[in-house]
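Much of our argument rests on the idea that a fold can be written as discrete symbols. This step matters because it turns folding into a mapping between discrete strings. The record that follows shows the chain in one-letter code together with its fold in token form.
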Amino acid sequence: MKFGGSSIANAERFKHIAGIVRARLSQKPVLVLSAMGDTTDNLLEAAEAALKEGPVSVEPSLERITGLHLCALRELGISNSVPENIKTLLSELGTLLAGISLIGEFSLRSKDFLVSFGERLSIRVAESFFSSLGIPCKALDAWEAGIVSDSNWTAAEILEESWKNVPEILCPLTESGVLPIVTGFIAKNKNGGITTLGRGGSDLTATFIAAACNAKEAQIWKDVDGIMSFDPRKIAAAKPVPQISYDEAAELAYFGAQVLHPRAMLPCRKTGTPVLVKNSYNPEASGTKISGKAPEDAPVRALTSRSGVSLVDIVSAHMLGQSGFLGEVFAAFARNKISVDMVATSEVSVSVTLDSAYALDALCAELSRIAHVELKTNKAIVTVICDTRSSSKILEQAFSVFGSIGVQVEMISQGASKVNISFVVTEDDAPAVIRGLHSAFFE
């Protein structure tokens, strides 16, 4: 059971998740926690202040972080004395910030060490509170739970030996009735250096533990009723998606949905362990189950969109029958360190979409030596996550929508994964396209 920062933002939220966990103790859960609320941001701000303002800035920054955790302890009824393990961590954090201010240096390794304090503090607050409720539990930093990473600071990967370590440590605890409370997002390398697991790191910790321990499922508790048919802040009629495949969930994330990072699903995908996305604010909601098999009753699962896209059209008669032309085109992307999102080709042209954040002038200049190049900006990708075996019917409905609202599609691509059909439209047209498609497929 993984709970993110918003789920444990304060004492009230801690009390709420305690009820959720307590109701499931018979299922022998393992808890994975993120940092409380905005703690990670506060830690990074404290480091920046220490660099710019020197030692004078350390105390106010430390007080803000300390205050959040000590206030939570008081409101949770743990007011007699601050637990020693929390005192020790806060003292160590103060020493680190003072060191950053004195040395005037903040490396990636130091950054990983600094942000680790958020998760390490949250599990110790949870341990104190759960113990006060009479729940046998044990706080474990990820390395104490057997997770070993490489040394790629800020984006570390979990090493193979962790698959053996984790169940050897955690399964005896759960079998004896103890609730393990493990830090998400962080690990240690073989030399003992603290690392962070990058984007989706806390979810990755949870799915890795679930897969390694052969758990019934990995539960990822968020602040929405599972994966939605579209962002409910933009489409009021958005609905929870009951079930979705690993591939479909990965495509949703890749094309802009804030669900689970694709890498977080890899351990469970490897073992076939289901992932259940639940709402900690509405625990009775059934949530979304992610597994190896997609349901067959509804060909369209969800919609997602991404703006800030550029479309590059590359046209050359030299493509006709020339085997090396595409290799030359994509070598130019590699030399400019630019990643391509979507591709569509004909006998004499290739069109690609790119993130507009890239500097594209040098790329276009290089490609112009071998082809005619046209760069179009302010585009959006609207993606239908679906079973493409029903693509004819889906496309018929989609183009009916485009026709009814007068929108011209500038590019279309059916993913090789067979679970998405994507359309490129102007950013201005994207909201109307999404409303129309959502109405057609879900309302």
Summary: The mean pLDDT is 91. Residues 30 and 180 are 5 Å apart (CA to CA). The longest helix spans residues 108-132. DSSP finds 13 helices and 16 strands in the chain.
